[in-house]
């Protein structure tokens, strides 16, 4: 059975209480995990702590903490602490993010993201073991570090993001899970082949890698509003958040992704949004009235090898639209779960 998770809003929220309320609502609706993004608002660790303390059964996870703005040792400490706070419900999601975030916002050099992610995961696992950490990598060299608290039991899973085939293959080789976004159901099938190839290279069982598809969802009775919000969201990510999303869409056969990106970068956002046509929305998202959105999510859940679908929301959606969407596609309202 495919899990149904929720990826909490990436857009700014008025208070930490509001985010915790979304998490409690997801727990009541039967969602399996609440994933929290960390972008340019509140730090993720503090908010994850509040989410853990105000819920009882839903898993909580970071999706994602980037591998540049915190050291691997600190990420290990953070994972151990959040596993304690949540009573064993924490899942650590890591990823390299991209140059726009790392260089422009954090002022750090963005280099060899695959290697940095692999080394970070390896160090985090050593930290979580409770043993002394002695690590000699290309990006990191550590010696003598050790947790001064009990090692978490069980250790939280360490999951990663990545867009391109090599990044996904690497996840299959070393991570406990992989999160994919900006992918159609057919695009997910292609990336699952990358997971299988990576698992084979790492002498692992691909079933040991939990695969999660993030799907932008907007389920409203006002279908025109739902599609407008979703179109703006896709246009922003393809056009304004570096080249990763553009490339992911182009790999799946959407040549207009380059035109969307170029128009957005040139400041012609109206043209960019026009190019996010109905086919892209229907293929890539779950958008429309509640019944239609549920059916579109079920297309992903039918993909063999997919472990979870994480419902996410357009960045322009307000609180009421987020709550209505979350309720409309909650597991307790789905006949397929």
Key features?
alpha/beta; two-stranded antiparallel sheet; 14 helices; 337 residues
DSSP helical segment count? 14
Largest sheet: 8 strands, parallel, barrel
How would you describe the oligomerization state of the chains in this entry? single chain
Q: How helical, in percent, are the residues?
A: 40-55%
Care to count the β-strands? 12
CA-CA gap between termini: 7 Å
Poorly predicted ranges: none
Q: What amount of the residues lies in strands?
A: 15-25%
| Helix-strand sequence | EHEHEEHEHHEEEHEHEHHHHHEHEH
How many whole angstroms does the radius of gyration measure?
19 Å
Within the largest sheet, what's the order of strands?
A: 1-2-3-5-8-9-10-12
């Amino acid at each position: 059975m495919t899990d149904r998770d929720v990826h909490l809003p990436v857009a700014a929220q008025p208070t930490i209480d509001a985010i915790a309320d979304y998490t409690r609502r997801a727990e009541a609706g039967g969602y399996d995990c609440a994933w929290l993004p960390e972008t340019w608002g509140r730090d993720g660790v503090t908010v994850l702590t509040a989410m853990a303390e105000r819920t009882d059964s839903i898993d909580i996870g970071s999706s994602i903490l980037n591998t540049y703005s915190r050291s691997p040792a600190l990420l290990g400490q953070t994972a151990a602490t959040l596993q304690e706070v949540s009573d064993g419900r924490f899942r650590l999601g890591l990823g390299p993010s991209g140059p726009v975030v790392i260089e422009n916002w954090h002022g750090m050099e963005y280099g060899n993201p695959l290697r940095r992610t692999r080394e970070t995961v390896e160090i985090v696992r050593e930290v979580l073991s409770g043993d002394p950490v002695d690590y000699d990598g290309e990006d990191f060299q550590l010696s003598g570090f050790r947790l001064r608290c009990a090692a978490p039991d069980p250790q939280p899973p360490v999951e990663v993001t990545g867009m391109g085939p090599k990044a996904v293959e690497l996840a299959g080789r070393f991570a406990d899970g992989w999160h994919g976004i900006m992918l159609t159901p057919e695009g997910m099938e292609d990336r699952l082949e990358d997971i299988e190839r990576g698992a084979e290279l790492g002498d692992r069982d691909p079933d040991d890698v939990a695969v999660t598809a993030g799907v932008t969802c907007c389920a409203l009775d006002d279908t025109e509003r739902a599609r407008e919000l979703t179109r703006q969201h896709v246009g922003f990510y393809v056009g304004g958040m570096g080249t990763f999303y553009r490339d992911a869409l182009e790999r799946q056969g959407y040549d207009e992704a380059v035109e969307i990106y170029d128009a957005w970068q040139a400041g012609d956002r109206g043209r960019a949004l026009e190019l996010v046509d109905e086919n892209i929305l229907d293929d890539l998202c779950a958008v429309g009235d509640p019944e239609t959105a549920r059916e579109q999510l079920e297309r992903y859940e039918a993909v063999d090898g997919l472990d979870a679908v994480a419902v996410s929301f357009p960045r322009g959606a307000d609180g009421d639209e987020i709550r209505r969407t979350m309720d409309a596609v909650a597991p307790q309202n789905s006949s397929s779960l």
